[in-house]
Specification:
The complex is a heterodimer of chains A (about 300) and B (about 475).
Chain A: H1 3-35, H2 42-51, H3 55-59, H4 67-76, H5 84-97, H6 104-120, H7 126-149, H8 154-177, H9 179-182, H10 192-204, H11 208-214, H12 221-230, H13 238-256, H14 261-275, H15 278-284, H16 286-307
Helix pairs in contact in A: 1-2, 1-4, 1-5, 1-7, 1-8, 1-10, 2-8, 5-6, 6-7, 8-13, 8-16, 13-14, 14-16
Chain B: H1 23-31, H2 34-51, E1 70-77, H3 79-103, H4 108-111, H5 117-121, E2 143-150, E3 156-162, H6 169-182, H7 184-189, H8 198-208, E4 220-223, H9 232-242, E5 245-247, E6 252-255, E7 258-263, E8 266-269, E9 272-275, H10 279-282, H11 298-303, E10 308-310, H12 316-319, H13 321-324, H14 327-335, E11 347-348, H15 352-361, E12 365-369, E13 378-380, H16 386-398, E14 403-407, E15 413-418, E16 421-430, E17 432-436, E18 439-441, E19 447-451, E20 465-472
Parallel strand pairs in B: 1-20, 4-5, 4-9, 9-10
Antiparallel strand pairs in B: 2-3, 2-17, 6-7, 7-8, 11-14, 12-13, 12-14, 15-16, 16-19, 17-18, 19-20
């Protein structure tokens, strides 16, 4: 396979995942801001901007941090490289470049998501916004399904690898930005604000019910951290993503008979996560742990680029 | 006065007596309800759109979404007609390759005084960089698209040779797919020769044309300018149907005068490149230095004999419109016999007498730029305004060597589904001829282009032309 093709598939996987994550982040923030019993207001939107590292870019616009400005910015701003529309556009451009390596269903899923946001315009109200986000989300689901049904070929492996690398990055950032909420000093644990904030986090990773299923004791910081970092049952946990990345690298290695730096990095990362206990993370500081993890993930991304000669 | 238009399928202008080989087709046409035809045609175009068989016209904002209109009514050649065409095409394409070998080699044809010296040496299509060069197996034009027109029951002539990077073969294949799916009954009523062997034929040609050192298992690729090129769909379609990589310039590099492609397992040597990039952009070291589409050093590898370029650079000299007028002489010079396929009478404005004739009769002639293509830079006298004629006259006077002129041909017409029902529309025909060390090969068929506007003679897709499937009968048995 051409390096360029592999790179396009990998970035297609990353951008599609990022678009999906942003869609769920906006959706969860709408709920936190407007629908909860004690609306969090602009704080909710400020933290959403921080999760995807867009705080500065938005501030440069000089607009109020509130839903009617932030949501369109995150959804369809042509100037913000991290907006859902720009992510979908990037995913689609990569898909076009490797059209023949994709199944027809995969292409349609990306194309449809892009069309939905391109032609939708800025939603007039919250309901319109949620409907549009729902559409992006369901396109992302059909892409995942389509990729899983593709031939066991490096094409699907590179897309899934990109998806896995992006997914853990997103989850880690989400946790990092909300960590002060997760580990409160003053607020009463189990208080109303807590519950809403935590629910937001779980909604963003589509795991509210999964959490309730796995943990009977209600919402608490220790469990949420364990859930998002160490539970392989949750597809968006760090350990599940690390496992998926390693599996895809191994599948590729079986085809190419080529092992190198990226494989050993991914292997080590998973081994460490498997031995890790949640109390150790909390003991040494969640923020420090996540910063480290994000850095390691970037190093793995770099090693993948080098190994397969992207660029 | 122009000759009456030959309406294909029929023996008479009134369209009442079908030709023997077309009887079944005419019968089908007479019995199929027009609404059914329309429905099928829409279904075909819908499918093309979904597949993304689009093309871009320069300067068109919505270019990416355009498809070439498809006409559901095929045109048809009898087995005997095809056999005759095939023979003529074989002879012509062999002569073109011999001509290219000669012109970049001994230049016998010039020494023999058959072609004027300056017509070759001052021609921008002539690449002096290639003099003395011998491509692998002495083949220059591996793929030729020969544009043919029909003016009567037996009147076929060549309108234009395309031996640089002829396009359109994907339409031949996709149109046939559509016809089989939408009009299966036609294939039961007549034995139509298949065209779906083309990708295999192309692949076999590429493999056997590899440099001798790589003969065992040559790595073949298709080189595309990228996804924004108007023919990108065709490039990816061909790569996919053959099962080879579709590469862009950035995927290739030249080291030690060998071409390598960047793959996920490292550099892989490339032996055969079917390039869909013009000569000018092929290698910035030799041709246009500002080309971003080319591969620096590619010509070094080509000269060293380490890579086969399909087609070789420099072939443009053979399809130049001024050279075209010498094709009958070129064919008999190299083949030793009369050219089987005639050309259209051509006045070369570089010759003073001819130039004067063209200036005097411009209203009746078609004037073409010798290096124009795609229907651009062309004047159709009978349809042009006085101002346009004057404009061309001035241009010809200023640079006579840049123009040729031909009579306005009565191009044959084929029944076509139009908004106003079934009506004849003018067509041309482009078969795709492959040359390899094994000889000349082609599939029985090609691309029929149709001018959809009533009376129009311009079939180019960039100017509102459409396409039709081209049926070639396997046998003419039972035909009177």
């Amino acid at each position: 396979m051409l390096s360029r093709t592999a790179a396009s598939l990998y970035w297609l996987g990353r951008y599609a995942e990022r678009a999906d994550f942003s869609a769920r982040l906006i959706e969860a923030t709408v709920r936190l801001d407007a629908l909860s019993t004690r609306p969090a207001g602009s704080a909710a939107w400020a933290s959403a901007l921080n999760v995807i590292d867009a705080g500065e870019a938005f501030a440069a616009l000089g607009k109020h941090v509130e839903q009617r400005h932030v949501a369109p910015f995150l959804l369809c701003s042509p100037d913000h490289p991290g907006s859902i529309w720009r992510c979908l556009e990037a995913a689609r451009t990569n898909a076009r470049a490797v059209r023949m390596a994709l199944s027809r269903e995969s292409w349609s899923a990306i194309n449809n998501a892009w069309l939905r946001v391109s032609t939708g315009g800025v939603p007039k109200d919250g309901a319109g916004l949620l409907a549009l986000l729902e559409g992006v989300h369901s396109s992302a689901l059909s892409l995942t399904g389509a990729i899983e049904r593709m031939l066991k070929h490096p094409s699907s492996m590179f897309m899934r690898l990109g998806g896995a690398i992006e997914r853990v990055d997103n989850t880690a950032r989400l946790l990092d930005v909300k960590y002060h909420i997760l580990l409160p000093e003053e607020e009463v644990v189990g208080g109303v604000l807590d519950r809403d904030q935590w629910t937001t986090i779980l909604q963003t990773v589509s795991a509210v019910n999964a959490y309730r299923f796995l943990y009977s004791g209600g919402l608490n910081a220790r469990n949420v951290i364990e859930f998002l970092v160490l539970r392989p049952e949750l597809p968006r946990s760090l350990i599940a993503g690390a496992q998926e990345a390693l599996e895809q690298l191994q599948h590729i290695a079986e085809v190419t008979h080529n092992f190198s730096a990226a494989d050993s990095l991914a292997m080590t990362r998973l081994a460490v996560l498997r031995r890790l206990k949640v109390d150790a993370i909390i003991g040494e500081g969640l923020h420090e742990y996540l910063e480290d993890f994000i850095e390691q993930n970037a190093a793995l991304d770099q090693a993948i680029s080098t190994q397969f000669r992207f660029f | 006065m122009r000759d009456p238009v030959f309406i294909e399928f029929f023996d008479d202008v009134e369209r009442s007596i079908p030709r023997a080989e077309c009887a079944a087709l005419v019968d089908w046409l007479n019995t199929a309800p027009i609404e059914t035809l329309r429905m099928r045609q829409n279904a075909a175009e819908q499918a093309f759109r979904q597949l993304g068989i689009t093309f871009a016209v320069y300067g068109d904002e919505d270019a990416r979404e355009r498809i070439i209109p498809f006409d559901i009514i095929p045109r048809l050649f009898s087995a005997a007609e095809w056999a005759r065409l095939e023979q003529g095409l074989d002879q012509r394409v062999r002569a073109i390759n011999a001509f290219l070998n000669d012109i970049y080699g001994e230049q016998r044809i010039i020494k023999a005084g058959i072609i004027p010296h300056d017509l070759v040496f001052s021609n921008p299509q002539y690449r002096s960089e290639l003099v003395g060069m011998r491509p692998p197996h002495d083949i220059w034009a591996h793929i030729a698209g020969i544009d043919m027109v029909r003016t009567g029951a037996d009147g076929f002539s060549v309108l234009e040779d395309n031996v640089r990077t002829p396009s359109g073969v994907s339409y031949m294949l996709e149109n046939r797919e559509a016809m089989i799916r939408l009009c299966p009954e036609l294939f039961r009523q007549m034995r139509v020769a298949t065209v779906d062997g083309y990708p295999d034929l192309l692949h076999a040609m590429m493999r056997i044309s590899a440099p001798p050192a790589a003969r065992d298992n040559p790595v073949c690729v298709i080189l595309t300018p990228g996804q924004y090129n108007s023919a990108y769909y065709e490039h990816s379609f061909l790569a996919d149907s053959i099962g080879i990589e579709l590469v862009e310039a950035a995927d290739l590099l030249v080291e030690d005068d060998k071409v390598w492609m960047r793959s996920i397992t490292g550099l892989v040597q490339v032996d055969v490149i079917y390039r869909r990039i013009d000569d000018d952009y092929l290698d910035p070291e030799v041709f246009r230095p500002d080309s971003m589409l080319g591969v620096p050093g590619l010509m070094r590898a080509f000269r060293a004999g380490n890579v086969t370029l399909v087609n070789a650079p420099g072939t443009g000299i053979a399809d130049d419109k001024a050279i075209y007028s010498y094709m009958p002489e070129i064919v008999s010079f190299y083949s030793g016999s009369e050219a089987l396929l005639p050309i259209v009478q051509t006045w070369r404005c570089r010759e003073p007498d001819a130039c004067q004739y063209v200036l005097d009769h411009i209203e009746d002639l078609v004037v073409k730029l010798v290096d124009g293509s795609g229907g651009y830079g062309m004047l159709i006298g009978p349809l042009a305004t006085k101002a346009e004629c004057a404009q061309f006259r001035a241009a010809i006077r200023a640079q006579p060597e840049k123009y040729i002129a031909q009579p306005t041909l009565a191009l044959s017409a084929v029944p076509t589904l139009t908004d106003a029902g079934i009506a004849p529309r003018h067509v041309d025909f482009r078969p795709f001829v492959l040359s390899s060390p094994d000889g000349v090969a082609m599939v029985p068929g090609g691309l029929t282009r149709v001018a959809l506007k009533q009376g129009s003679l311009v079939v180019n897709s960039s100017q509102g032309g459409g396409t039709k499937d081209t049926f070639v009968l396997m046998r003419d048995e039972g035909i009177a």
